[in-house]
């Protein structure tokens, strides 16, 4: 470990603390390879972590950036969002420079994952911070002898001041699957998407960059190799049903997820795929 990367604990669970000399800080949980908090240089924490999140080394942690793999949501036989967020990943690589820190966590198949999903794979999640940026990259390699396919997402919980006061820009004209309306396919007509009710949408063929604009700040969200963008907020009733969310938690969060859902990723033996999401605090 360098002094820019330390091992620590959060609520009894192992985390890596990343810091750059300019003051950017992130916490990454080994459970799920999940970024739990990210403070850009000179700023404040821009990721939502539920104060009721469960840290027991098994349950998925509510907040930060859960890694959904090898299945997005309930789109397949596995439990919601696959198993990667419920597994302990190992530190595979780390590097620090004058203005950046990067760590790579790794998860491979074992008897337990093969019982759920009969494939050999290696997944690596790289997290890099510096200045006002957070870069996250998920790479998956088919290490087996048969083809495999999966869906995936970086399920980013943005921390927002008041969800009803923000606007999501860049989605106009896109087709989306409205999960909150039985999976109906619709077209986005709004110039800016506002949130004043439950929203659970998978936007397809999304542009590389979208913007979440708040009254006094914004977040630029850039994705590569993730063709879908999921926008999710549970709103009052669904939030009340989530045991690991406070009643008013939905007001402080907005999930904007870089995802590959509509077209599963197909990997032949030996092939690999990567997808990236970057957040730029403005
Ligand atoms: O409660 P979970 O399993 O973390 O899922 C949260 C939400 O994740 C979103 O990605 C899905 O679109 C929602 O349908 C889902 O409710």
UniProtKB/TrEMBL annotation:
Catalytic class of the enzyme: isomerase
UniProt EC number: 5.1.3.15
Sorted alphabetically, the keyword list is: Isomerase
Keyword presence, Disulfide bond: no
Q: Does the keyword Isomerase apply?
A: yes
Note the superkingdom of the native organism. Answer: Bacteria
One Pfam annotation reads Aldose_epim
Q: Which reaction does it catalyse?
A: alpha-D-glucose 6-phosphate = beta-D-glucose 6-phosphate
Tell me the SUPFAM superfamilies matching this sequence: Galactose mutarotase-like
Report the family membership. Belongs to the glucose-6-phosphate 1-epimerase family.
Q: Which PANTHER family match?
A: APOSPORY-ASSOCIATED PROTEIN C-RELATED, GLUCOSE-6-PHOSPHATE 1-EPIMERASE
Q: What is this protein called?
A: Putative glucose-6-phosphate 1-epimerase
Organism this protein belongs to: Zoogloea oryzae
Q: What is the lineage of its organism?
A: Bacteria, Pseudomonadati, Pseudomonadota, Betaproteobacteria, Rhodocyclales
């Amino acid at each position: 470990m360098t002094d820019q990367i330390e091992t620590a604990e959060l609520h009894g669970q192992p985390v890596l603390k990343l810091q750059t000399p300019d003051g950017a800080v992130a916490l990454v949980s080994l459970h799920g390879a999940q970024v739990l908090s990210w403070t850009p240089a000179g700023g404040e924490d821009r990721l939502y972590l539920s104060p009721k999140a469960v840290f027991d080394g098994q349950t998925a942690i509510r907040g930060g950036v859960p890694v959904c793999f090898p299945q997005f949501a309930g789109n397949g036989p596995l439990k919601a969002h696959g198993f990667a967020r419920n597994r302990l990943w190992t530190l595979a690589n780390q590097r620090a420079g004058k203005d950046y820190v990067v760590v790579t966590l790794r998860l491979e198949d074992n008897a337990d994952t093969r019982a759920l999903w009969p494939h050999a794979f290696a997944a690596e999640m790289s997290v890099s911070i510096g200045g006002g940026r957070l870069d996250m990259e998920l790479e998956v390699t088919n290490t087996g002898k048969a083809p495999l396919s999966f869906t995936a997402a970086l399920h980013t919980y943005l921390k927002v001041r008041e969800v009803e006061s923000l606007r999501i820009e860049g989605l106009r004209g896109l087709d989306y699957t409205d999960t909150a309306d039985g999976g109906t396919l619709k077209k986005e007509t709004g110039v800016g998407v506002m949130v004043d009710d439950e929203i659970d949408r998978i936007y397809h063929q999304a542009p590389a960059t979208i913007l979440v604009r708040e009254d006094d700040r914004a977040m630029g969200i850039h994705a590569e190799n993730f063709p879908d963008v999921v926008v999710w907020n549970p709103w009052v009733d669904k939030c009340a049903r989530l045991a690991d969310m406070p009643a008013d938690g939905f007001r402080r969060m907005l999930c904007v997820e870089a995802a590959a859902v509509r077209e599963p990723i197909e990997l032949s033996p030996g092939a690999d795929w990567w997808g990236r999401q970057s957040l730029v605090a403005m």
